[in-house]
Design a protein that fits this description.
single chain; alpha/beta; Rossmann fold; 5-stranded parallel sheet; 5 helices; 5 strands; 49% helix
């Protein structure tokens, strides 16, 4: 079964970092979005298995996008990615449905640990 991830970040460099890690670790399809509006539309279209969501972006920020995606799918697996100093936004995203967070700059092993955590959570939620 194809594994899909939606990577949301206004920085093309950060999207490329995520893409490289995800492709190397079993994600067949990585969909990119550069803001929250694109993220919500891409979520509706592709129904990804995982979402990585930047907090600070133009047009619609990550917290707002998390809220909109959770309205579409209350079980969406979202990892929020933030810079230092964005604790309040991370807390708000977590309260609104994000499953965990990672702080920039991040490292591959840290990303994999967070993905495993979210996948385990999803398996427990679905009773698998």
């Amino acid at each position: 079964m194809e594994k899909r991830c939606l990577v949301v970040d206004d920085s093309a460099f950060m999207r490329k970092m995520w893409l490289d890690i995800l492709k190397k670790h079993g994600y067949d399809m990585v969909i990119e979005a550069s803001n929250g509006i694109e993220a919500v539309e891409a979520y509706k279209e592709y129904k990804p298995d995982l979402v990585t969501m930047d907090i600070t972006m133009p047009n619609m920020d990550g917290v707002s996008a998390v809220k909109e995606i959770i309205k579409i799918d209350s079980l969406a697996k979202i990892i929020v990615c933030s810079a230092m100093g964005q604790q309040q936004s991370v807390i708000e995203a977590m309260k609104n449905g994000a499953k965990t967070f990672i702080v920039k700059p991040f490292y591959e092993d840290e990303v994999l640990q967070k993905i495993r955590k979210v996948e385990l959570w999803a398996a427990l939620e679905s009773g698998v």
